[in-house]
Amino acid sequence: MSQxxxxxxxxxxxxxxxxxxxxxxxxxxxxxxxxxxxLMLEPDLLxxxxxxxxxxxxxxxxxxxxxxxxxxSALQELGGVATNAYGANMPAGHVSALSSAKDAPYxxxxxxxxxxxxxxxxxxAGIVCLMNLxxxxxxxxxxxxxxxxxxxxxxxxxxxxxxxxxxxxxxTWGASTAARVTWVAAGQRWREDSWCCxxxxxxxxxxxxGAIGQGGxxxxxxxxxxxxxxxxxxxxxxxxxxxxxxxxxxxxARWRLDLQLPGQANRANAAMALATxxxxxxxxxxxxxxxxxxxxxxxxxxxxxxxGRVLRLLLSKNPAGWLEAFDVADPAxxxxxxxxAQGPDGRDTSWLWDVDYRILTGRPVYVTGERRLDLxxxxxxxxxxxxxxxxxxxxxxxxxxxxxxxxxxxxxxQQIRAEFGRAV
Length: 424
Ligand SMILES: [Zn+2]
Hints:
By secondary structure, this protein is of the alpha/beta class. Helices cover 35% and strands 17% of the residues. The chain contains 14 helices and 17 strands. It has a 9-stranded mixed beta sheet with strand order 2-3-1-4-5-6-9-10-11, sandwiched between helices. It has a 6-stranded mixed beta sheet with strand order 12-13-17-14-15-16, sandwiched between helices. A hairpin with a 2-residue loop joins β12 (303-306) and β13. α1 (6-24) crosses α5 (91-100) and α6 packs parallel to α7. The longest helix is centred in the N-terminal third of the chain and has 19 residues, at 6-24.
């Protein structure tokens, strides 16, 4: 890539120094502070760092960190990749990611849904991968509709090639103003936010929805088509289709995913990643072996051990995320649930009432976290037996040695991770 102007070089170097200092003093991985320092010195730094690279933006309510990681792993087949691996998904994190790999020809950036228009404008990204939109913490359907509307405006009139999940009506609507769209039938488990047509507010009719979300085992998306009853808005014909364990590419070739990452949500992430990298000239045959090397993402799906108890850590930040975690959790194993309500989690835990916990009936359930009483009430109302624990430690002690699943929301997950070391 061409040389950065002197001021941008300096801003980028000082930002990296700040990040190193932040890491050295134990204040996290430093990517946000480093980027902030850089942007303070050179407000146009992100634009300059993105110039002359092939930039991919990845946005969604759930799965963006994992999909960013999968796309990054695959693109390494073609060359160096700069990426925000730790989920620092706002412009300061993007500056830090691009500064740390200045010569990489590719940039793969996870982007907070709200920041997508701004980051698209600044980076001039050629590829945008959009997966799902659902209520997150306190958000409700009206807010995510506004987000989708902002995506529409941001994409309108731009040359970006969008890779979008056509099984999510709101994502479809958000993506459909783009000049070019590759549609991926990647499935949609959480449907509570898409009963209405985003175009006219009329009811959406679905076909073949009965096979989705039943029980904790493998689920099949048999026929995911949908259409508005009152206007012409309907599911576009997909170019790529996720079909159980396989992905079918636009030429009809079927690829067995065989990922190490568990669950249907990760197969959906992989389908999106394959379609995205093909837009950059990398076919599924070359990309798949690299996707299969990914075993955990920022501590998610990691297995850690203490005193003979083997814990698998699952992160779940919102109602749709809980359904994904239930799909991955093993029904034969005991499960620890930990819920906090600090800033990053959202202080309001009313979302607990959006999740159907009855799927946990029959397995030993241990409840902990700062908001364990909120969760306990929710489980009691759902008729799910559980044991209340003052601390994660107490839950562990109560369990016999063996395998255990853990589902935690954001800060609860980070606390458990910190206790077991920051395994990635
Ligand atoms: Zn409609």
